[in-house]
Design goal:
Elements: E1 3-8, H1 13-24, E2 29-34, H2 36-45, H3 50-65, E3 70-73, H4 79-82, E4 93-95, H5 98-107, E5 110-114, H6 121-135, E6 140-143, H7 150-154, H8 158-170, E7 178-181, E8 199-200, H9 203-214
Parallel strand pairs: 1-2, 1-3, 3-4, 5-6, 5-7, 7-8
């Protein structure tokens, strides 16, 4: 049986990714490791904090012990560290936002990046620039953050969080032909906006890419 492992920094992702995998590969199994502390450390100390890489390594090892054939890091802030080439005995690690970024740079001329936490912005911008260079595309990328939404998420008001983000996206100038929702938690906002066709989010694309790796 195929097993997809997930490294999360929020408990809310567990049910979401169980559902997404179940819809696309009912025979597949899922295992999860939730490390809220890793995002907290990144926000307080930056990605150079050695405790973050140590925690990622611990999580990957834990998911491997649980039988993961491929691991998805669902936190855009730390996923760049997680996808570094693993030890030969470890399963491949996919950063959640790479498939989304690849899709965005192929489809757009101007990309607006919306993030609700500051620590996510630079990793997302760097990834989009990397994917644009790899694809040979000339894309304008700009950060248009939505920091005021995050307190709603922290209070557990997910409906308010998603509606706040959707309202923010609807205010973004139409000259941006693609809006990237930088965090997996933001994905439900994509169906609330006036023009969902210009919005890219990461969860579905990442699950499909992970399943493609192990099939």
């Amino acid at each position: 049986m195929t097993t997809i492992g997930f490294l999360h920094t929020a408990d809310v992702h567990v049910a979401t990714f169980d559902r997404l995998v179940g819809e696309r590969a009912p025979a597949a199994d899922t295992v999860h490791d939730v490390r809220v502390d890793l995002l907290d450390s990144a926000r307080r100390h930056g990605l150079t904090d050695p405790a973050i890489e140590e925690g990622i390594a611990q999580s990957i090892a834990n998911l491997e012990r649980q039988g993961a054939d491929v691991i998805v890091c669902t936190c855009s802030t730390i996923s760049g560290l997680a996808e570094r080439p693993p030890a030969p005995t470890r399963p491949p690690v996919l950063r959640i936002d790479r498939p989304m970024a690849a899709s965005a740079v192929r489809a757009a001329r101007r990309i607006a990046v919306v993030a609700a936490v500051e620590s996510t912005i630079e990793p997302t911008l760097s990834l989009l620039r990397e994917e644009s260079a790899s694809a040979g595309t000339d894309v304008e990328i700009e950060s248009l953050p939505c920091f005021d939404a995050w307190p709603l998420f922290e209070r557990g008001d997910l409906d308010g969080y998603h509606r706040f983000i959707a309202a923010h996206v609807d205010e973004i100038d139409a000259s941006y032909d693609c809006v990237v929702l930088a965090q997996a938690t933001m994905a439900p906002a994509a169906v609330l906006v006036a023009e969902p066709e210009r919005v890219r989010s990461s969860p579905i694309a990442a699950v499909e890419a992970a399943l493609a790796i192990v099939r």
